[in-house]
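Please fill in the sequence for the structure shown.

STRUCTURE ENCODING:
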């Protein structure tokens, strides 16, 4: 994957951000978490160096007048630095992204206090932005069957792509967890793959017989790959490539397979791995699975996400009941 060219924060701040990143790494935070947190603070300081008002503000000059002068050091932080930035993010991005920015900046302030750079957290009285509770999007079964139809060839790529798609939509494994599987992590007899989740925690993901069939077919095809003996990773690239398939390679594959099946028309978006997590969670609960088991399967440490999917499944069940009872037919 091509490295991103990042615009650094002002030098003194970038040095602190880099030091914070080392602390997060030492705490065994995932690379994605570290990147998300440090990017949020970097963007915050780039904006403070040259603030702009949200696009729909009636009086941008008056709005910007409430942004304090750019801080030179952490002791110069004021609550309005944060209030204006979060307000700007609410106006220019999704509520979820604005909430993630809030969390990153809050963690940044906690670290600065731990390092004796701050005495009081500037966000102490700032509440997080409200995120409307929206049911997670669930890919329709018929659409996913069309995606799998596109993988019905007997060539290596078809076998590999079908196995990846079935495994993600069956188990709800995160993209990085599935991408980083080794051959030894697959147990066809027990029908379980062992993944390494956030914080380096290992857990087993059970899979269905159809997924097991796709995996077995892929493993046979993999054994004939010219570079099979050179790599422990489960997913290999094209025959001419020696390197294993990366998580970015899986992203590209899913986008390509989704487009072939009409993802834009069916979903209004590209096909991506997290939709598989939505699909597995929703259908597990809709078929009677409980939230505690779903937490264990998906590697969640709090019940918040399981409850979110539980509400989505409950809504689906309520709709099915209403269509069965047909109250309107009584009139």
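FILLED IN BY: designer on duty
SEQUENCE:
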């Amino acid at each position: 994957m091509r490295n991103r060219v990042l615009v650094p924060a002002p030098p003194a701040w970038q040095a602190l951000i880099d030091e914070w990143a080392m602390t997060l790494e030492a705490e065994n935070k995932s690379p994605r978490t570290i990147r998300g947190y440090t990017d949020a603070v970097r963007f915050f300081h780039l904006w403070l160096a040259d603030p702009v008002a949200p696009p729909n503000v009636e009086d941008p000059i008056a709005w910007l007048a409430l942004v304090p002068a750019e801080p030179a050091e952490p002791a110069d932080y004021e609550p309005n630095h944060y209030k204006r930035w979060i307000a700007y993010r609410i106006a220019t991005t999704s509520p979820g992204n604005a909430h993630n920015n809030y969390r990153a900046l809050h963690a940044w302030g906690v670290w600065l206090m731990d390092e004796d750079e701050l005495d009081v957290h500037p966000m102490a009285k700032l509440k997080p932005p409200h995120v409307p509770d929206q049911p997670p999007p669930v890919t329709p079964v018929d659409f996913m069957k069309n995606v799998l139809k596109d993988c019905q060839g007997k060539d290596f790529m078809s076998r590999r792509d079908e196995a990846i798609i079935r495994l993600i939509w069956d188990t709800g494994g995160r993209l990085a967890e599935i991408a980083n599987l080794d051959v030894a992590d697959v147990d066809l007899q027990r029908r379980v793959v062992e993944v390494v989740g956030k914080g380096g925690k290992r857990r087993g993901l059970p899979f269905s017989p159809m997924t097991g069939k796709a995996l077995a077919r892929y493993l046979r095809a993999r054994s004939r790959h010219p570079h099979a003996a050179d790599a422990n990773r489960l997913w290999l690239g094209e025959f001419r490539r020696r390197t294993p398939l990366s998580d970015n390679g899986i992203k590209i594959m899913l986008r390509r397979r989704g487009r072939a099946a009409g993802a834009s028309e069916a979903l209004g978006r590209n096909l991506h791995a997290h939709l598989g997590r939505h699909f597995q969670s929703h259908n597990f609960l809709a078929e009677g699975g409980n939230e505690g088991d779903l937490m264990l399967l998906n590697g969640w440490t709090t019940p918040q996400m399981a409850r979110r999917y539980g509400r989505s499944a409950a809504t689906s069940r309520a709709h099915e009941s209403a269509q069965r009872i047909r109250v309107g037919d009584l009139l």
